[in-house]
Amino acid sequence: MLLWYNSRNCESEGGGKKMKAKREHGDSVDGERDLKRQRVVDSPSSPPEEPLVPYNDDEDDERRALNHIGSREEDGHRVESEEEDDDDEDDPYGLGSTLGRSNRQVEVRRDCPYLDTVNRQVLDFDFEKFCSVSLSNLNVYACLVCGKYYQGRGKKSHAYTHSLEAGHHVYINLRTEKVYCLPDGYEINDPSLDDIRHVLYPRFSREQLEQLDKNKQWSRALDGSDYLPGMVGLNNIQKTDFVNVTIQSLMRVTPLRNFFLIPENYQHCRSQLVHRFGELTRKIWHARNFKGQVSPHEFLQAVMKASKKRFRIGVQCEPVEFMSWLLNTLHADLRTSKKSSSIVHKCFQGELEVVKETQSKAITEKKESDGEQNGALKITDGQIENNNVAAETYRMPFLMLGLDLPEPPLFKDVMEKNIIPQVPLFNILKKFDGEMVTTTVRPPARMRYRVTKLPQYFILHMRRFTKNNFFREKNPTLVNFPVKNLELKDYIPLPAPTKENEKLRTKYDLIANVVHDGKPDEGFYRVFVQRKSEELWYEMQDLHVSETLPQMVALSEAYMQIYEQQQ
User: Fold this and answer.
1) Which pLDDT score, from 0 to 100, does residue 414 have?
2) The USP domain covers which part of the protein (predicted)?
3) How far lies 154's CA from each of 2, 104, 161, in Å?
4) 542, 233 in Cβ contact below 8 A?
5) Helix, coil or strand: residue 486
6) Is the peptide bond before 183 cis (omega within 30 degrees of 0)?
7) Cβ–Cβ contacts within 10 Å for residue 294, how many?
């Protein structure tokens, strides 16, 4: 390098005389300084200045030498030419993307002396992919020795610095899944790291989806504990049990689960909520996890952003509100046009016929002025008016149905105890028989509902909580419901099938039951879910998963239920 720069500088006559004079007077130090200054200012071959990246002569020589070598095999190692992406060594933080791209060489080695330092016990890919130093999400690597996230792998990056300070040498890119050895900079191509890649981004094939509900095999975590794929506990970060029970319930809906297990089904969608929900679904059903639980941290961050902090960590909310918001938001993000459907509506959408009776203002004013009452029927704009009452009939879609519970007794019995009332599910389902009248206060109206289309998955919500100006009350009424063979046609009128040879499916089986325990403001939620492969029931409360009897499911204070239509 020094000879090359001297030959360039000797072309300048003034520079040569000056150098010679300096050497004659013995001032060698000042001469070297002038040479460096002249080389930077006057030499036409000096590299162009980049405001974001400092220039390094050694790196330039290495790049030039590697370009001369090309792609080849040498000593059992492969040297490949790959196009620069955000892994650029000269641009460690991904800032130079607008300065142009060039081809560089990355050595790929099949052997690495540091592979035995990889510690799978500390690896956790459930949290957000942010650098632990710069808090940036660009070009983030995970240290496979300590599990921390660092940005970049260039010589000025945090990952490179960590490799020198801590002696940790194996890193995986959290986006491309490539593994590198730092500070050497070569890529590691070893099949023993495939299990880490599968935990980072679980993958499912179409054949595996068909076997999920038939699989009876347990999986084993690194700590020796056994877990069931699809029955893993979810970490309660802080008062997020309402999110956990909702997620666990939706994981039992087979078409929705299968849709989100294949990322190609929604790769056109730009919503972070959709992709985070898909990642969480794949982690829950993955059979090769390093641990027997999953933390929904990334999903919760997407929920807070999409809901504008309506649902956030540390604030308790009702699962039915979160379920309603989540299903509507997923549908809006997944559909390609306003008229198109989505997997959410294919699973849960039904239809109601609503008859709304209100006081007719026009007839009321006429009665007050004339003192007469018209008892004849009058049809105007699709409404029927009779004796000051206007009846309007219309149809509306629904994703879940709300059921009203009877009021609990106000007074204690002879034994000085409150009797907890019980009511059959069929009694409160009469609200949708088309005859029972439901009165609304705002606006004052009399409503009648009738189901005209049954969904494949039926979501029922029991309204247990009432709120007034002073406090929040909980209705402790127990609902008696069947776990299997809920026959709807015996209790509510159902529409005739649309096709002649089509058989109307009216039987449903329970697959998820969310319950609430404790006081209205201090209680917690848990969920009973069914494992289809063995038809066993499991009770899930955050990280705790235990097998239970079907009889115990019906003895709880049901809050929200999901029924599956029998095929």
Assistant:
1) 64
2) 232-566
3) 26, 13, 9
4) yes
5) strand
6) yes
7) 22
Phi, psi of 331 (to 5 degrees): -65, -45
Q: Are 38 and 77 in contact (CB under 8 A)?
A: no
Q: How far apart are CA 265 and CA 161, in angstroms?
A: 40
Q: Is the model's pLDDT at 40 over the cut of 80?
A: no
409-455: pLDDT as tens digits = 777 666 656 677 888 888 888 888 888 888 887 778 888 898 888 89
* Contact yes or no for 88/96 (Cβ under 8 A): yes
Kindly state the tokens that stand for 485.
């063979």
User: Which of these, 566, 567, 562, 516, lies nearest to 252 by C-alpha position?
Assistant: 562
Q: Are 95 and 52 in contact (CB under 8 A)?
A: yes
Kind plus residue range of the DSSP H or E element containing 517: strand 507-517
For the entire predicted model, the pTM comes to 0.76
Q: What is the DSSP letter of 142?
A: E
Q: Which of 524, 528, 533, 532 is nearest to 552 (CA)?
A: 528
Name residue, tokens 């009776």: 357
Give the separation between CA 230 and CA 435, rounded to whole angstroms: 42
> Which two three-digit tokens encode residue 512?
């998820």
Both structure tokens of 408: 């609990």
Q: Cα(first)–Cα(last) distance of the chain, in Å? A: 78
The alpha carbon of residue 69 and the mean position of all alpha carbons in its chain are separated, in whole angstroms, by 45
Token look-up 């709304």 returns 356
Q: Which domains occur in the chain, in start order?
A: 108-198 (3.30.40.10), 202-334 (3.90.70.10), 343-359+389-565 (3.90.70.10)
- The Cα 151–Cα 138 span in angstroms is 7
Nearest to 230 by CA among 296, 289, 279, 284: 284
Per-residue model confidence (pLDDT) at position 476: 85
- DSSP annotation of 2 reads H
Q: Residue 314, exposed/middle/buried by CB under 10 A (0-12, 13-18, 19+)?
A: exposed
Please say if the pLDDT value at position 508 is more than 50.
yes
Residue 461 has which token pair?
Answer: 């919500």
In the block, tokens 């003192």 appear at 371
